[in-house]
Design goal:
The protein is mainly α and about 90 residues long. Helices cover about 70% and strands about 0% of the residues.
Length: about 90
């Protein structure tokens, strides 16, 4: 359970449903960004940024130490898009 949501007196069932919804939203965005990159579209970097931001929000609200690698991956995606890496995909 999220400490932030517990402090806000959100019960376990709605918090779990929100976590699951945000997780699936993040997965869907990453799949769409990956598909866009695979076909060399011009819009995939924006979707990748939104996906990574959504993943970071998920991990910030429901943080667990086992998610630390996911935080690094989300930050890596944001940095890769911002610094246009790899250039062959843009």
């Amino acid at each position: 359970m999220s400490r932030a949501l517990t402090a806000a007196h959100v019960s376990a069932a709605p918090a779990r449903a929100a976590a699951l919804a945000l997780a699936w939203y993040t997965v869907l965005l990453y799949v769409v960004a990956g598909a866009g990159a695979a076909v060399s579209s011009g819009w995939w970097p924006g979707v990748a940024i939104v996906a990574a931001s959504s993943g970071l929000a998920l991990k910030a609200i429901w943080f667990h130490p086992r998610l630390a690698a996911g935080v690094l991956l989300d930050v890596g995606v944001i940095l890769a898009v911002v610094f246009v890496w790899p250039g062959s995909l843009h």
